Amino acid sequence: MYLRALLAILVLGAAGLFAALNWNVLSSETTLSLGFTTVQAPLGASLLGLALVFLVYVVYLLSAALLESRRHARELRAQREIAENAEASRLYQLKVAVEEALRERNDQSAELRHEILARLEKLEGELRTALEQSSNSLAACLGEIEDRLERAAGGRK
Predict the structure, then answer these.
(1) pTM higher than 0.70
(2) Assigned domain for 153 exists
(3) 44-95 pLDDT, tens digit each
């Protein structure tokens, strides 16, 4: 951008210097045809004036384009901020949803753990009861066998 501006200033300066050095030739009057009439006017000055009008028009177009570009940049920045805010909002909602799902999963896990522990305690109690009954049954069988052996041994003597 800086190089382009410097080049434009150099070209305009050269054109101005050329016009200043040749002002006598540029200001000499001649007959000019406008299509429907003829006028006496300096041809060089007329062409310089026309070039100046076009230069002003080009500057106007460039400044309008620059202003439009800045307006678009502002709108893009605003839209980017809106998009970033929306994205941040979605991320926050996702975070809340994930935390809620994890909390729910932890609650289910704790509930399942309590159920498993309750079942284990119940099974442990049933196992103890069955073991006790088996022990009692075994003791009764052994006692019966001992009685039979004692009777059998007592009857032989």
Answers:
(1) no
(2) no
(3) 888 888 888 998 998 899 999 999 999 999 999 999 999 999 999 999 999 9
Query: What is the rounded CA–CA span in Å between residue 53 and residue 115?
Result: 92
Interval 113-126: pLDDT, tens: 999 999 999 999 99
Asked whether residue 62 is assigned to any structural domain, the reply reads yes
Domain that holds residue 44: 2-123
Written as six digits, the tokens of 112 are: 């399942």
Is residue 101 situated within a structural domain?
yes
CA distance 103 to 110: 10
Give the Cα-Cα-Cα angle 111, 116, 118 (nearest 5 degrees).
Answer: 95
DSSP H stretches of helix in 1-157: 2-21, 23-26, 43-156
> Could you give the C-alpha distances from 86 to 57, 100, 118, 145, in angstroms and in order?
43, 21, 48, 86
**57 found inside a domain:** yes
Number of Cβ atoms within 10 Å of the Cβ of 19: 17
SS3 category, 32:
strand
Query: How many independent structural domains does the chain possess?
Result: 1
**Three-class DSSP category at 25:** helix
Query: Which residues partner with 33 through β-bridges?
Result: 38
